[in-house]
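Researcher: Please translate sequence to structure tokens.
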Amino acid sequence: MHAADAPPLAHAAPWPARGSYEPGFEPVAKTFARLLATKQEIGAGFVVHHRGRRVVDVWGGFADVKTKRPWEADTRVVLFSVTKGLAAMALNLLADRGQLDWEAPVASVWPGFAREGKERMTLRTLFNHRGGLPYLDTHVTLDGCLERWDLAVDAVERQRPAWEPERGQGYHALTYGIFAREVFERIAGESMGTFLRRELFDPLGSDARLGDATMLDKLAVLYPPSGPSRVGRMTHALVTAYDGLEARMLRNVLSPRSIARRSFASPRPSGGLEAYGTPRVVAAELPWASATASARGVARAYLPFASGGVHAGRRFVHEATIESIAARQGWSERDSVLNKPVGWSQGFLKEEPQLFSPELASFGHAGLGGSLGWCDPVRGLTLGYVLNALDWHIRSPRAIALCRSLYTCEPVRDAARQAV
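Model: Translation complete:
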């Protein structure tokens, strides 16, 4: 069944939300409706699967405020860093099939990488954000990546790590996508978007796409926070909770000489965040940010990763691969870019405990503005959350509220008890 063809569930979502949910999942539907009613959302969708079954499917608001185009079940958004989770799926499928060896040097598949002290850096070190390459000294722009990908690759090859590989950790916010695309294409001999659609998205009925601009009519308009609003709220956070996690992260990102500031500017979009919603960017394969999907599409893409690698009788990935991802591999109590506790496993995000899930084995990836793709292989959960009112927080309060309401639901609590 394709994501767009999903029938209604047992209970209608409370106003002003649309959609439906299964018995036991009312807390999630109520939380989503509250976010809409209190104008914290402009438009959004939230979908949950539990043990392979869709149990929450809610949406509401506007995809385009100016034209009053309503948000529908199949409205899609630019996913920003949720894209990294999809890229990690592609890399892990290659590893699962014996085509990628996480312990091999990056240079074994990408010879030009073996420069400036990177000769022995492994693929695991690179994709667990421990390679010391969160920024590029060479000026690289988003437009440049679209027009001359080879120059972005050359900039990576000539970059000296900011720290000795594996001796530190810092979120490779944008450079990750250059590594992911180049490594994948050199191994697979085809584009990542083509591979993901054939091997994962289409068989799962997911509308997620990377490098496909054919569904622009369903794409929501992005609404970044206004300058005055963003500055006012950031100032409030810095003043009221100076040593809190959010304040620490903000100081790191705002400091002109910080690694964080440099990391979020390589490659730099000349048209601001809205540039990522343009047809030429959506049509490109930029595995750090340019994928698009509906909430249904994101949740469905994670289905095999929450069910031992099998969905609807088909094996997509071996259970041992999922167990490896679920283990905490790279971890730092204070990531040098995000300035918070965080880690990664084979390209997937492993968030701080209790943020999106109380389960340490859970993984996925969040995106700028608040969108989220996540799975909990212990409880058999996958979720997709997409929106167009971009949040200025690094840890989206709306995503956290929805996730926490999910873990109060009785079927999820029962699943946790059965797993013990």
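Researcher: Any highlights?
Model: Residues 3-419 form a domain with the Beta-lactamase fold (CATH 3.40.710.10).
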